[in-house]
Specification:
By secondary structure, the protein is an alpha+beta fold. It has two domains: about 100 residues, 2-Layer Sandwich (Phosphorylase Kinase, domain 1), CATH 3.30.200.20; about 210 residues, Aminoglycoside phosphotransferase (APH), C-terminal lobe (Aminoglycoside 3'-phosphotransferase, Chain: A, domain 2), CATH 3.90.1200.10. About 45% of the residues lie in helices and about 15% in strands. It is built from eleven helices and nine strands. It has a five-stranded antiparallel sheet, with helices on both faces. A two-stranded antiparallel ribbon has the order 6-9. It has a two-stranded antiparallel ribbon with strand order 7-8.
Length: about 350
Amino acid sequence: MHELKAETLANWLTEKTNAIKTEIKSISQLNGGASMYTWEIMASFEGGLLEGTSRLILRSQSDTPLLPSIGIDCEFQLLKFLKSKKFKVPKPIYLDRSGLLTGNPAFIMQKTTGSSKFIGADSKLNILDRKQLTHDIGHQLGKLHKLKIPSNQLRLFKKAGEQSVIDRLYTQLDLLPYSLPVIEWALRWLEKNRPVKRSQSLCHGDFRNGNLLIHRKRLTGIIDWEFAHIGNPLEDIGWFCARCWRFGNDMEEAGGIGHLSDFMESYETLNPRKVNWVELPYWNIVATVKWALIAHRQGLRDSWNSARKLELALTGFKGVQLEHEILKLIKNHERVKI
């Protein structure tokens, strides 16, 4: 990844916006992001399409993107489509396919008001706040899963749709340079206990506490769409509800934020195509296996010179912890079946 230079960015934005002059007031790289780099930018425009001061977000593909990523170009097009359908997503503005700004493809979007900091047990939200926020989240996900995808958007996800989620996880496992017996056994269990195939929908792919923008106790945006694909809607719900994304607030099954019953109620209000909630524990296991594989892969990225980050090293350590969680979840699932 190249350094993001203020002069290069200013010249590029001046050309894109037809401004007379662009001044970059500040650039700060944001933490987090599994396969993307993100910067917050404050820019002042003299004339042009964005005249005045704007807060922008620049999102760039990393040197070592994770396998399921749809890529910068596809994410940009998807956000444009979702914004046109009134979803709570950031507004994409300009695309840099050539990698002029960072050395890799990137795009710029307007900054959406809100914080993506995860909501845990120590959050200042009271019971009513959590209930309302859980309803907001359920509404947005229900709306997403009932969305009809036009053919020109559907082709963005063709490759992902050709593989089942279990096959995609097997592919990720095979790319690791060491064996993971627990993960392989879990994948075989998931294959053996696979639910009946149901109608597919557009899935976010990383819908969870931490990828939701919250402002004044309400949902203002959903971010990080690089893993979007066509799949079973319960894949998104299982990921959102998995214990690994509750941040210690295990009693609140809906993402560590609220009650599952409140989430289900709001989800079904917006999505008349009922999901089979009995299958949710299965998809919680899928989610935990998926996160364990990502954790192992992130740990490997830390050993690559281009991506030395403490966050990656610590994420790699979580892989083994998640394997233990997988065994517990499957044991409990088998006990319930009996």
